[in-house]
Amino acid sequence: MLSVVAFFASSCSSPGTSSDATTTEASATATQSVAASTGIDLTLFKAGAVVGDPSTVDCTLSGGAETTCYEITISGYPTDHEVGPFCPETITTGADKAGIWFDGEGVYDLDGEFIANLAEKYNDSGWQMYDENGNVFVTDTAEAFEAAARPDVDPAYQNYCIEGSVDYLENGEPITSTVLIPTSPVAAAAPSEPQGNQGVTLDGVIIAASAPVDAILGAYTIASFDDCGGHFNPFEGYHLHGATGCSETGTASEGETAMFGYAMDGYPVHSPYSEAELANVQLDECNGHTTEAEGYHYHANSAAKNQVIQCLVGQTVAGEGDGGGPPAGGVPAGGAPGNN
Ligand SMILES: [Zn+2]
Ligand SMILES: [Zn+2]
């Protein structure tokens, strides 16, 4: 544990100075595209993000590796920032009082103008998400939220902008999730598409699978995200579908974006690079790379892609990467299409 702390501490100052025991694990495979990592540093989680004390348990990974995993219960609510706003109140509401929407093609300010132009945007005259006074139809009760924030949207809530609140969840409380993540990543034989939950943020939120955009748009709804790329559903509470620079550690080393979470295989996840930055770095097919300061880590996709982590190079715990993990009742076996 000490060496892990030392590794991250040294990586914050100057890259060339990390030495001795702190890098022995990484040096063995440093020349490979996927270097070993020193593993999860629980101290990086923000205050309140982890509920209780994580335990270390024996676990078998997807590729058959027998190792140890951290069993971590996360708060299910970002501990370092407020959630929302989500939907605009009227068709003249500005972007500063609303969240965002992304559909796999682009990321958009979910301002009043966007709502007003939905029929044009999606080339379908069935869109009419506001009344004659310009007020946007928003799921502003628990009942409406529960009926609409699901793949099989209640037809009564077509043309609603969907937003939730912790008040609409059971007992008005965040929904915690317990995840099993390898204490140190173990490389897989080949990269795999993440199924189900992809990871956790450092401020206590599940990084979820892609939002089912086709089902959402097919029901003439917008499952609004806040500016951090998260939203509520009744099953999982608040969860993340897009990385926009929230939940980060305080520092980023030279040429890097800051880390904001861990993937289910135990590798760190950093914020997306901008288009300009992407032109100057070489990332592998999973948007990962190995740097001297940070070891192997992923960069999240742009929120526009509606998929935070492109693919996983490490093994995951059976059930954690395929949507079978807790909380029960939310995600169908096999993951996709999952919930909103
Ligand atoms: Zn990087
Ligand atoms: Zn969702």
Explain how this protein is built.
Pfam families: YHYH. Residues 320-340 are annotated as: Disordered. This is YHYH protein. This protein is an alpha+beta fold and 340 residues long. The protein has one domain. The chain has helices at 2-12, 21-27, 112-116, 118-121, 142-148, 213-218, 275-278, and strands at residues 55-60, 66-74, 100-102, 107-109, 161-162, 177-182, 187-192, 199-201, 206-207, 222-223, 230-233, 237-240, 259-263, 268-270, 288-291, 295-299, 312-314. The protein has an eight-stranded mixed beta sheet with strand order 11-12-9-8-13-14-16-15, with no helix packed on it. It has a three-stranded antiparallel beta sheet with strand order 1-2-6, with no helix packed on it. Strand 13 and strand 14 form a beta hairpin. The longest helix is centred in the first third of the chain and has 11 residues, at 2-12. 51% of the residues are buried. The model is unreliable at 1-33 and 322-337 (pLDDT under 50). Residues 208, 211, 231, 233, 239, 241, 340 line the site of one zinc ion (ZN).
